[in-house]
Design a protein that fits this description.
Shape: globular
Helix content: over 70%
Largest sheet: none
Order of helices and strands: HHHH
Oligomer: single chain
């Protein structure tokens, strides 16, 4: 999903890229892959900075993630 988002971003399909990035973030959370989650967040931040979409919209996205039980993907401690 992240690669599809990058391809969409490169072709200026920013709405589509954002949907792919959010799906990749959900999948990273579901799998517990914190590294992938961090990478996808970095891609979203890069896209926001490129589009000039900082501030209020970014805080709104963070609040929505928090209401859905969001936060960072968690990995169980090593046994």
């Amino acid at each position: 999903m992240a690669v599809a988002g990058i391809c969409a971003y490169d072709t200026d399909a920013h709405g589509l890229a954002q949907r792919y990035f959010h799906q990749a973030l959900r999948l990273a959370k579901a799998s517990g892959d914190r590294g992938l989650g961090a990478y996808v967040i970095a891609l979203l931040v890069n896209q926001s900075l490129f589009a000039g979409s900082t501030g209020r919209r970014w805080r709104s996205r963070r609040r929505r993630c928090g209401r859905r039980g969001g936060g960072s993907p968690r990995r169980s401690p090593p046994t």
